[in-house]
Amino acid sequence: MTIRPGLSISEAKCVLYHYDFIGDRLEIGRYCALAEGVTFIMNGANHAMQGFSTYPFGIFPGAWRDGFDPAGYASGYRGDTIVGNDVWIGTKATIMPGVTIGDGAIIGAHTVVAKDVPPYSVVAGNPGRVVKRRFGDDIVERLLAIAWWNWPADKVTRHIAAITGADIEALERAV
Question: Active-site positions?
Fold first, then answer.
């Protein structure tokens, strides 16, 4: 996925608190549109909460690190962050750690997504909530079965009119 031609997602500085020692991943599907200012907060932003202090003593060298118990931090981890295919994320939206955004979803500008988003849902607000479904359950099931985003680029090109024109029957014939 490219944020801007020539820039990777990490160079665009939209992924925050992503530390190798944690091991969480950010997966972004095909044909996604991320507006300027989108931010992904990763599990490294969490602080241990079971002790008297939430201060991250363990990230500093020396004696402070010696007493560091990684399990204390791991208890708050929420897992990988997954963005499905054909997702549009509006300007300055914030995606919290461990969230899964379903295929075809739309995330409104300035939305804070703190829980999973169903496929083909429109989510807005802080905290983000589903404000509507883009299509009925039958169409969503059919679109997920077609999974046009997995087609080779030349097949997508041949069926652009059906994809952008919401012609489900033409897409099903193309499968």
Answer: 47
